[in-house]
């Protein structure tokens, strides 16, 4: 972002995050000692703290201003294979004692679960001299409520003023948060993390009466200087909203469907959900026993990259302290592995993939150019820019979601469409992917460009 006041970072001496991490680490160690004193064979503690500011404006007036300060302490104990957990937000010693006692009491009355327990000690991440790397994730933003309101108002005004067809607004928002976390366990592992995230967004309404259309845009980043300018966000929101006016439906049929980058990552999300441990050991996935099989075209790949600078999910260790590592999820179209923490891995008779808590930055391999290049190559079909509903069956892979977007004719945007449904089966859709663009949407830990699926059923007006 070019606006210099926006780029202001915490002045020297004002950032107390390291001392607060020390404080949380001290609490974690004391709680582990108390768990051990009460006879727990293993224990783990998570301590989290978050501070944030968010403002919302609408039609030039302030609607909400919210400042938050949250914290939480979670204690899990194991008596052999019996597990108990309890949590608190109260840091008084008597409350911490009661939390440990509650976790121990729960564990004493639960049944043995052979898969329960900490991740193996040999898998714990080892901190280099100076501590675990931070991956450039800590960028506090000096942002008071007045400045945040000014930015939100400027964002909305830029959108409303940029096109006479913008008749109304759903508002603009600005938010900033800073999170600290400590995870420690009885293997002797102590991991500390800190990160920031900042967002500017705007949603606008074009047209009148039943012809109204709504759309928007947002920018989000770990560092304020990586945000788009507030006015640019508003103008982009206005462009997207006005472009949706006078939509049509289309005839039902089979056709190529191009998922714009901002919605294409949902397809990757469905894949991750289907190959995650909980769904697999419960047999609630259409990809049970799929590791080692071809799901995608032979050029397709997805890499997990946990060490990216300013990555949204960069980390040296997962939620159990296991060392993360760069590893393919899909290579040459073949599913290489599942997404597992230690519990689900044991349930499946496998090893953890260091994914307790989720995946760490997925990069989808591109084989095509930008969106315009993909439209030209596609020639005729549907561009999807919005998906609605939750019509995905995780057990069968059946896929059916409401959609809106644009009809493509001769490689160009012809007219907006809505009131349609795109349907298929995820396994077949994965195999039918023809191209992935290089127009990566940077606003997520799933980094992908637009994805072209060669043939899907689109239900329209007839």
TrEMBL record:
Signal sequence extent: none
Ranges where the Metalloprotease TldD/E central domain occurs: 139-245
GO MF entry, a single one: metallopeptidase activity
Record's protein name: Metalloprotease PmbA
One Pfam assignment: PmbA_TldD_3rd
Gene: pmbA
Domain Metalloprotease TldD/E N-terminal: residue ranges: 43-107
EC number: 3.4.24.-
UniProt family annotation: Belongs to the peptidase U62 family.
Location of the Metalloprotease TldD/E C-terminal domain: 252-460
Keywords: Hydrolase, Metalloprotease, Protease
Broad enzyme group: hydrolase
């Amino acid at each position: 972002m070019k606006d210099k006041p926006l780029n202001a970072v915490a002045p020297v001496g004002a950032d107390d995050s390291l001392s607060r991490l020390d404080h949380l680490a001290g609490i974690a160690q004391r709680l582990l000692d108390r768990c051990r004193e009460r006879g727990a064979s293993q224990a783990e503690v998570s301590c989290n703290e978050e501070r944030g500011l968010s403002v919302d404006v609408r039609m030039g007036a302030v609607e909400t201003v919210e400042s938050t300060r949250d914290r939480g302490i979670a204690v899990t104990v194991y008596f052999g294979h019996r597990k108990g957990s309890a949590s608190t937000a109260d840091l008084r010693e008597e409350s911490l004692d009661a939390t440990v006692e509650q976790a121990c009491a729960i564990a004493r009355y639960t049944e043995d679960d052979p898969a329960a327990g900490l991740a193996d000690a040999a898998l714990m991440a080892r901190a280099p001299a100076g501590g675990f790397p931070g991956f450039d994730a800590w960028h506090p933003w000096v942002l008071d409520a007045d400045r945040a309101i000014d930015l939100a108002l400027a964002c909305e005004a830029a959108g409303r003023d940029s096109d006479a067809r913008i008749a109304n607004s759903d508002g603009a928002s600005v938010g900033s948060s800073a999170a600290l976390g400590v995870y420690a366990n009885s293997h002797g592992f102590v991991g500390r993390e800190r990160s920031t995230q900042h967002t500017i967004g705007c949603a606008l309404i074009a047209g009148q009466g039943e012809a109204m259309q709504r759309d928007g845009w947002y920018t989000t980043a770990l560092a304020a200087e990586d945000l788009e300018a507030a006015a640019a966000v508003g103008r982009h929101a206005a462009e997207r909203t006005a472009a949706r006016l006078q939509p049509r439906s289309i005839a039902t049929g089979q056709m190529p469907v191009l998922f714009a980058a901002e919605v294409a990552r949902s397809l990757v999300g469905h894949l991750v959900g289907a190959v995650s441990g909980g769904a697999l050991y419960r047999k609630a996935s259409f990809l049970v026993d799929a590791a080692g099989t071809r799901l995608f075209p032979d050029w397709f790949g997805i890499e997990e990259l946990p060490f990216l600078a300013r990555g949204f999910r960069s980390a040296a260790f997962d939620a159990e302290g296991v060392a993360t590592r760069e590893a393919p999820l899909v290579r040459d179209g073949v599913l290489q592995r599942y997404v597992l923490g230690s519990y689900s891995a044991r349930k499946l008779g496998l090893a953890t993939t260091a994914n307790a808590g989720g995946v760490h930055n997925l990069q989808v391999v591109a084989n095509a150019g930008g969106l315009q290049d993909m439209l030209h190559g596609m020639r005729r079909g549907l561009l999807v820019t919005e998906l609605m509903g939750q019509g995905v069956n995780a057990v069968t892979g059946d896929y059916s979601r409401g959609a809106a977007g644009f009809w493509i004719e001769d490689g160009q945007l012809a007219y907006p469409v809505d009131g349609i449904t795109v349907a298929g089966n995820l396994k077949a859709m994965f195999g039918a992917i023809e191209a992935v663009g290089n127009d990566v949407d940077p606003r997520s830990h799933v980094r992908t460009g637009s994805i072209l699926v060669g043939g899907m059923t689109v239900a329209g007006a007839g």
